[in-house]
Design goal:
By secondary structure, this protein is an alpha/beta fold. It is built from 13 helices and six strands. About 35% of the residues are buried.
Length: about 300
């Protein structure tokens, strides 16, 4: 397809990306490509802040409900799928907008992924079996020790960093820095939403309370009852691992909201660091304290000025 400059609405979790995208859809005929790794999982709706029925009826979304919680949806698969969605949207003379804060999804879509060195299958399986016995905290400590460039991101990413470091002798972050040239066909125009940390923490706390009031614990209980194991890939999503831990007695009800909010704040901090240093392409920053409708108009005006 011809080169497309894609509007990408990104920022830390809880900053209000989806609300701005919804307001943008009132101004121009857009279709949203979700770059939120948790939203790819079916049945996990509340904790991933998926758009509701009214939003989906008003705006076409892509990237939602693609796999079961027991499957793993990778950044590489997202990139392949997203390029197809973007081409299809553009062919219908509508505007594709990528919305989300999963950094590795954005990197895979616009820059491609590094070529993994050959890994011995037998050693890899033995190592994976050993890593499955470790908790998320232990995996994170080992990943940071083996890869000085490891910046967190959950058990799956920690295990990946350990695997690559031990089986190749080189840190994953080093291999990723030698990534290929940007992928032809699509290039990003990043609109990054940001808030001062105290304000973002307030939004995260409010959203956590709303998710729990909406039935997040019951949602997890239903999914577990459908024979999905507690260590399923879908439960690695932010908020779900804390609820699973609560249901298995690792924390009490009084501490659940605090556990989710604390983990979310830490994740948001890592996202902010990644977005400041890792985005390749034009970047425009926006004050997320502004109303979503105002932000949508500002964003659209600056995007058009930069791409016409």
């Amino acid at each position: 397809m011809a080169e497309l400059r894609i509007l990408v609405i990104t920022g830390p979790t809880g900053v209000g990306k989806s609300r701005v995208a919804f307001e943008l859809a009132k101004l121009v005929p857009v279709e949203v490509v979700s770059a939120d790794s948790g939203q790819a999982y079916r049945h996990l709706d509340i904790g991933t802040a998926k758009p509701g029925r009214a939003e989906r009826e008003a705006v076409p979304y892509h990237g939602l409900d693609l796999v079961e919680p027991t499957e793993r949806y990778s950044a590489g698969r997202f990139a392949r799928d997203a390029r197809g969605w973007i081409a299809d949207i553009a062919s219908r003379s509508r505007m594709p907008v990528v919305v989300g804060g999963t950094g590795f999804y954005l990197r895979a879509l616009f820059e491609g992924l590094f070529v993994e060195p050959p890994l011995d299958p037998e050693r890899r399986e033995r190592l994976r079996a050993a890593l499955r016995k470790l908790g998320a905290d232990a995996l994170g400590r080992w990943a940071a020790r083996l890869d000085p460039g490891f910046r967190g991101g959950g058990a799956q990413r920690a295990a990946r960093a350990i695997e690559v470091a031990l089986l190749t002798g080189r840190p994953l972050s080093e291999l990723q820095r030698a990534r290929p040239a940007p992928v032809p066909g699509v290039t990003p125009w990043y609109a990054v939403l940001r808030l001062p940390r105290p304000q973002l923490a307030e939004r995260i706390a409010e959203r956590t309370r709303a998710m729990l009031a909406a039935g997040l614990v019951d949602e997890v209980r239903r999914v577990l009852a459908s024979n999905v194991p507690q260590d399923a890939p879908g439960f690695e999503a932010l908020g779900y691992r804390e609820v699973v831990a609560f249901m298995y007695g690792a924390t009490d009800e009084a501490g659940l909201a605090q556990a989710i909010a604390t983990a979310t704040r830490h994740y948001a901090k890592r996202q902010e660091t990644w977005l400041r240093h890792q985005l390749r392409g034009p970047v425009a920053w926006f004050d997320a304290a502004e109303p979503p409708g105002v932000l949508a108009r500002q964003m659209l005006a600056r995007y058009r000025a930069a791409t016409t």
